[in-house]
Amino acid sequence: MLASILSLGGIGFLAALALGIAAKKFAVEVDPRELALLEVMPGANCGACGYAGCSGYAKAVAEGKAGPNACTPGGQATLEKIAHIMGVTAVAAEPQVAVVLCQGDNEKAAAKYRYLGVADCNAAQKIADGPKTCPGGCVGLGSCARACPFDAIEITAQGLAVISREKCTGCTKCVAVCPRKVIAMRPLDATVHVLCNSHDKGAAVRKYCQVGCIACQICKKTVPEAYVIEDFLAEVVYEHHGQAAPAVEKCPTKCIRDFEDGYPEGSSFGPPVCKKTEAA
Amino acid sequence: MKLKSFPGGLHPPDNKAWSAHKPIETCALPGELVIPLAQHIGAPAEPCVAKGDQVRKGQVIGQAKGFVSVPVHASTSGEVIAVEPRPHPYGRDLPAVVIRPDGQDAWVEGLEEADPEALTADEIRDRIRAAGIVGMGGATFPTHVKLSPPAEKPIDTVIVNGVECEPYLTADHRLMLEQTQKVLDGVAILKKVLGVQKALVGIEANKPDAIAAMQKACAGRGIEVVPLEVKYPQGAEKQLILAAVGREVPSGGLPMDVGVVVQNVGTAAAIDDAVRLGRPLIERIATVTGPCVNEPKNLRVRIGTALAHLVEACGGLKSDPAKIIMGGPMMGAAQLSLAVPATRGTSGLLLLGEQDVSLETEGPCIRCGRCVQVCPARILPTTIAAYARLDLFDEAEQFCALDCIECGCCTYICPSALALVQAIRYAKGAIMARKRKI
B335, B391, B420: best mutation site toward chain A, by most A Cβ within 10 Å? Predict the structure, then answer.
């Protein structure tokens, strides 16, 4: 009886001693700020900051290798918390939103062939450069929607990707996965965008798309400082995006869209929340 | 006697009766020949003629670039009217030499006849390369490369592929019937260049007339005809080797790893033309068939003839095709239009109507395992396809995605209409792209 109590107690004591010494000797120093930072991260592990998940970014911030404003999904709130923990001033990165630069769904844009394979844009793109005649248009098979960690992308019934301005956090995962580079990052407070990604000449674009940019210069003539036309494709000059709206009406193919007027046709998203609307 | 075969595979309705009895006809010269510079696996040829040049039949119009490449020749005499990108069977516009025939059809000078017996193996290889010969079963791999095995891989057997297991196609069948001697002369040259004693001709048992003709002509020439079970893909290189000589090509290996070289019967005939007559590869035999063609035929086609012209030669279209396939229905490549030209790899042109095309939408995998049963490469198509859909390419590679021969049996048999081979091809493309990057 006594022997067993002593021997078992002894083993317990020795093991506890060994563990205690090991815990002291092999302790890994963790910056307490790193743990605090991880607490305030959104936890989506989206990789938008350029690090492997939220913990990677927290470590980088704690070590001073990264600034406090790289977490786009967290937005202003997270930025302020990070800045508070690190004791730096919060200078916001300009919030950005992903925009699909195409309105050519299956009704408006011509198909090169009928695609019957795997429902994935990257797989379709490998077959004769994609099923759409337009070399830059949205394939509409939803690779971006599946990549989005925030459920911010829908594919309309007519096969066009539309990104919600409210749900998009600017993590750029969809930009990386799109085989046709039809998704681009744009400033969140800009609401007017040229929704076309075809660099073909106007005559060619007219043949395969009802809503493509034909580089007719009318937008540039209407508001010279807000538009630039490069390689047969108009683009908003985002420093002057506030003045871009008057050209929306004038555009003959309606490829310029003001998101204050709503999302592209076929989208089930409600009216977009735009800063200007909020202010008014 | 049980016929030789391989595990897996299936037998889709072959519809060969439409054209199998039709003798080879020569297709008339079209008004314009569009000869692509990329007609083979490897680096595309470099054009060596310019707009306005007069060329003659058999003249080199594109120089080979590197070892794995072959020259391209004019298919007739005439004027070069353009060297520019034109629609190509790959689905995009690629550089091509456009020739307007002058009707003379005059051969270029300097083509030398030779006696294969008097030539050395290297001289034969040079003649084969200069003639631009590629694998004519459809893969278009340069033949001289296949005939130059490294010294550490001794070859003891040459197998000539007269299986033609793809449904609808009958071009090789007619070739074996009508040009038996030419094919066998080509086999004799193959034996000489590889220094082998053993030569086999594999033919599917659904071509008894071709088997009989070849057996008769083979007598005393040291070439053996092997009838094979009627099963797709009996004519796939690795499956043919397993069936004919019982050797299995290792994963990631080539036929030369088991001492075998396989050549198509069409290639053998082209080799005979090249070595004996010095004539380059400027025409081939193609089956034009399908429910949308008025009169299915086997045609002798000049390289560069537009597919639309082939259809005209077969009495035109019966109805609008829903799918245009270059090659057979299982492994052929769908085409965007009939404007693309026939190339060295065009073994057939198949025009399917709306009712012949499967438009079923994909269902869920019901784990029935039929794709695994029919897979001749003995891999797990459903597993690899599932990984491919998730972009998990490392896992797909671990499950031997690269051993897929893309025969399409899995997609054909799938009761849920899953695009299995398509997904595996997607994974293979991604894996290969990554390997090239590293």
Answer: B391
